[in-house]
């Protein structure tokens, strides 16, 4: 082993030790024990959070981005940097702005400097047979521009991260990456699925495989795919779509050896999601017990990347235990990918009522159902019949659970289930009133796999009822599918539409076996492509989210400024153009 490898191995061991979990506490309400162990943090992250807090005092809240400070790479060892920090002059407890700027210049590189540009080796300006169903010249030119954005977003971890890992919160991923863009200068888990969908349209198969290999590296190192490739994200994951990434790559390339190498990590990640604090048992009205999963971060402190915001949000709580409970809900909501949304709040307009760990989400269990189907398929392809049978059986059990716990026959939708009991129960008794009957785009995510997940099979009458329910739900807006009907200022609520939700529902409708479903899918795809095109023409950029009340409007809300780039938006547009094409005579401009 080289000295560099030894250095990194020591860093990884030290990091995992520092991030080790604190022992569980006994539940206050009964004799059972809740496995709510939390990760501790690292000395570097603790110091950067302190710097973040002091910088806010100096600079004030206007345009302040707390993530910038925990992403700063150190130029010198932490001990020297900390010593210089404590020697900075303070006036009434505040570091003067000029001293803060000098300190940052002397002791830190810029946030993002530890991710360096790398040319994707499999990028070509116009791939062979690129978007063969796109005939409109305007759309084709734009699609090639979106395709070219992969070059702008391509990065690799700098050699400094591997040489001095203790100076960086960035993790030393082994292969090149595609980042989302703007403030998101590292890999993110569920973003990567739609990035890969777009890369496959662009025939960038090696780049897509490299992304998966990096996520597999995280599973092997931490036991799960982290929310993002920073040490401070180790306490949580994001929606489990790794098996779907492997599946999409396999469908394009037929690379069974790639599947073989990935499968052990897929099974390891699956265990993370179906056991421990993520596992919830519910008994239905017929006495059947169902094993389902929820989001639950091992964290009860402010999120490092948003610590100053979380501290302010928690200020209304008077005691430490209530603050810790709130911080856990905030981090768990970040694990959902929907941070933040009224979906997770008992009061849609009050962030302090986040209750994510008490919710069994329909979309998470839809994703896990697909994980089970994917692993069963991969095992069968590899000749592992025992594993195939095990995961196929698990998929049938989850299919039954999705129908029994989430399906609402009156609304013809799948609804999240709230665990309302405050007691520590091994098995929760299903009560229909605990289904959340508010309207969210997630109520239709099972359409992504709906013939399987719903258990509806070829029941055309039920398909028609679900289509009617969706069309009457209020979710379909002039420029796409809105996330919810609650206009509360949160970014995963009205009026924002997000690329992942558009794609999941469009793909489900397209694969429904119904002509009406396919036509509706195409209609939504056209709306979404048009609004992306219009915003691109106006701003020169692809955006993280869009305001779907009108064509070409950029989304807003949430705890940070709207971002551009943007990985998953690029991927979804390319995937939709590949699926539905664009006729020569269809106008791409917004319609009045």
UniProtKB/TrEMBL annotation:
GO biological process terms on file: trehalose catabolic process
Signal peptide: 1-28
GO MF: alpha,alpha-trehalase activity
Keywords, comma-separated and alphabetical: Glycosidase, Hydrolase, Signal
InterPro entries, per the entry: 6-hairpin_glycosidase_sf (IPR008928), 6hp_glycosidase-like_sf (IPR012341), Glyco_hydro_37 (IPR001661), Glyco_hydro_37_CS (IPR018232)
Record has Hydrolase as a keyword: yes
Annotated EC: 3.2.1.28
Catalytic reaction equation(s): alpha,alpha-trehalose + H2O = alpha-D-glucose + beta-D-glucose
Superkingdom of source: Eukaryota
Family membership noted in the UniProt record: Belongs to the glycosyl hydrolase 37 family.
Protein known as: Trehalase
Species assigned in the record: Dendrobium nobile
